[in-house]
Predict the 3D structure of the following.
Amino acid sequence: MMQSIDSQMAPASPARRTHQPRAAAGYPLVGHHAATSPIAWRRDRAHSVHEFLCSAISLAAQLPRKHFAINLCRDRYHFAVGFAAALIARQISLLPTCRAAEPLQQLARQYPGAYVLTDHDEGDIPLPRFSLLREMEQGAGPIDVPVIPADQIAAIAFTSGSSGFPQAHAKSWGSLVMGARALGQQFGLTQSLPRVAVGTVPAQHMYGLETTIMLPLQWGWSLHAGTSILPADLRADLEQLESPAWLMTTPFHLKAFLRERTNLRGLEGIISATMPLDRAIALSAERLWHVPVHEIYGCTEGGMLASRRTTAGEAWTLCHDLRMRHAEDTTWVMGGHVGAWLQLSDRITLRSQREFLLLGPHRDLVKVAGKRASLTALNAALNCIPGVVDGTFYWPDPGQTGTGRLRAFVVAPGMTRAAILAGLRKRIDPVFLPRPLYVVDQLPRNTTGKLPHEHLKTFARHIMHPQQHVHE
């Protein structure tokens, strides 16, 4: 079915699915009220809703007749056009966490017939490609807004691999829309005050998809086309915008912006996710930029589940349409965009029906000399030492609580191992001091600032080789 700009159309059939919520028959592709409204910004121009819909509908007719599209577009507007076109063409967008040739080939073997949708040269990837580097359809006259069936599988997202190999999770269009609506309600957003979502995280990540693609599309906001992670680039992007912006970022990026004392004008709010945010960093950000800093708690399987204003306290507030239950050491969540009961991988203490404390993943508990500690807490202590730019403890087998030796890798220009260890002794039990501790130039973080376990494992093997040791 088709209607004009307040209206919609229906495409596709469902594919694999997990935890699918009950939803309406269909949801519109966009929630904007006027075809002339900006839906995306870049430094040199704005893209209207009309232009976006024309491009997506035109592109849908040109896409290869395949079932799976691996969307690797780096430009966020191109990603959104490709994502929308795939929806209209009844295709499922695959959103990998890694762009390397071998993992992409494995993905193509897992999803036969998959092709790469891209807006840049992908180098030596031996897969069929469809380039968005072509003239986008402009169109004229009234435009119809597609209505996508709620149960249509829109995307398959993958975990970051921080606890092992990436796991695939199918997301229906209904769950994505309901998740975007829950996100907006959690932060008291309104469609009557359009804003711009600026992100330092790629759209292929579940957090990036929710906050920088689905939130703007469903709340009548605009998305920013770029993925600026350098402080100077982000500042320049914000200065070009005509509406207040919300920054969707990570603790890793936020710490870098603060280190540079970057002047970020035009910000109205900051949302952080992918790893715990230290309260001191949040406090510094609020003082420097005079905006509230919020955190999202969620997972690839369920999307955003809860939030908190970091400087206000430790407790998290569950999304209004979700429910939690707890038994022994296990917690489940259900309702809203999550659907059926979903088991969480974190240790949680419930305070009330909607408030809880997050204690860290079950897998990050380590046991040394009969004592237990959380890698999350140890990493927080390490990273709050003045002079430490980045750092992580390393436990070869996450989730194993047997005896073993903790190591640590630290980026701390100008600091010695002795100084770092002295800082740790003030903050943690001595039995958890790393033996040994390595000072390195950088850690193998991915584009969201996470440390995939396999990457860290390979990195550790390389660093711990005798010839690779870094001494004082």
